[in-house]
Amino acid sequence: MLKIALIGCGFFAQNQLNGWKDLESVEVVALCDRDRNRLDAVGDAFRIARRFTDAAEMFAEGGFGAVDIATTVSSHRALVEMAADAGLHVICQKPFAQTLTDARHMVEAVERAGKTLMVHENFRWQSPVRAVIEALRGGAIGTPFFGRVSFRSAYDVFSGQPYLAEGERFIIEDLGIHILDISRALFGDVDRITATTRRVNPRIRGEDVATMLLSHASGVTSVVDCSYATRRMPETFPETLIEIDGTGGVLRLDAGYRLTIQKGGGTESRDVSPQLLPWAEKPWHNIQESVAIIQRHFTECLRAGIQPETSGRDNLRTLALVEAAYRSAAEARSVDPGEL
Ligand code: NAD
Ligand code: 89Y
Q1: Ligand 1 mean position, distance from CA 160 (Å)
Q2: What percent of the chain shows pLDDT beyond 70?
Q3: Is 9 in the pocket of ligand 1 (CB under 6 A)?
Q4: Which residue has its alpha carbon closest to ligand 2 atom 7?
Q5: H or E segment to which residue 2 belongs
Q6: What is the DSSP pairing of strand 117-120 with strand 89-93?
């Protein structure tokens, strides 16, 4: 049995706690939030008795082998380093760190402790996205040469996550990070990125539109486009739509979770909708199912003694892309993420 402590009992943590409950090999034995009311509400709802308002106290008491960090980014470095000092395996929510320097220190701290670090980078684990990854990796359309990975919506994310309206940065750091990571999962690492950003919604501080052009080392060119200012019907939140052109055919993941592959004169189309788990609700069920899938991946990796696909070290490359996108937009030039 893997005993886990979870830190941060806010908006998204409920999904993580529900996901852990469904895994028979896992028990969440302790909770921490510096907000006593949230801590008690979540502790009562999930019947978790050991509760702490101070993470350092929780680490000192121990009694668990892994920690799940579900706080917002400003606390991640301190919490990951405390967990490494306590000799624990770690899962940490995205965005993993505020700066690449912080992220590198965090990865090194957990590696020094000889433990596993996974970033909760869950969009590439959404089952419709996974269906695309598997089809592509299985050679369904030959060698890809073009991709578009697109997330466009006007869904009100600010009511559940008010901090998203307040930061100097918004869509690339919060949402684009997932879409860039999907592009990496599909086409591999990136040599250059060119980005433009815009703020359309006057009630928020950061950018809510970003359009990015990526040159992958594999030779693929991809467009990653994200918007929270796109009022269209049907509203597709939180679907990532994907188009890939390959030497042997084309693949599309269209709105409504429909995967279509065209090759050799034929068309094959199937519904790849995510499951609606008993604790999930639409339209979030796609993201919620991916939480359960990434958590299972984490436990399987621990058991097998292998690195998770979305390990801390792997995530350094996704974070570098985020930083490179902001730099590209600010300096109106293409940027090699390797220069950061
Ligand atoms: P939130 O503000 O609703 O909740 C965070 C909680 O952490 C709060 O209750 C706060 O009191 C607590 N907290 C902060 N620092 C703490 C500390 N040092 N010690 C103890 N408690 C602390 O935030 P949220 O919307 O739940 O987001 C949390 C993280 O999840 C963010 O990084 C966000 O980007 C991420 N998120 C991920 C997804 C996804 O699909 N992967 C979706 C939504 C949010
Ligand atoms: O915080 C974001 C995330 O990670 O997925 C969707 C979201 O909740 C709002 O953009």
Answers
A1: 11
A2: 100
A3: yes
A4: 175
A5: strand 2-7
A6: parallel
Token representation of residue 319: 């974070």
In tens, the pLDDT along 156-183 reads 999 999 999 999 999 999 999 999 999 9
CA–CA separation, 166 vs 145, rounded Å? 38
Q: Is the CB of 287 under 6 A from ligand 1?
A: yes
Ligand nearest to the Cα of 291, by number: 1
ipTM for this model? 0.99
Mutate to test the pocket of ligand 1, among 6, 7, 9, 12 (most ligand atoms within 8 A of CB): 12
Alpha-carbon distances, residue 229 vs 151, 192, 236 (angstroms): 11, 26, 12
241 CB under 6 A from ligand 2? no
What domains lie within the chain, and their CATH numbers? 2-115 (3.40.50.720), 124-283+311-339 (3.30.360.10)
**238 touches ligand 2 (CB under 6 Å):** yes
Per-residue pLDDT tens digits for 222-267: 999 999 999 999 999 999 999 999 999 999 999 999 999 999 999 9
Tell me, what's the pLDDT at 15?
A: 98
Give the per-residue pLDDT at 272. 98
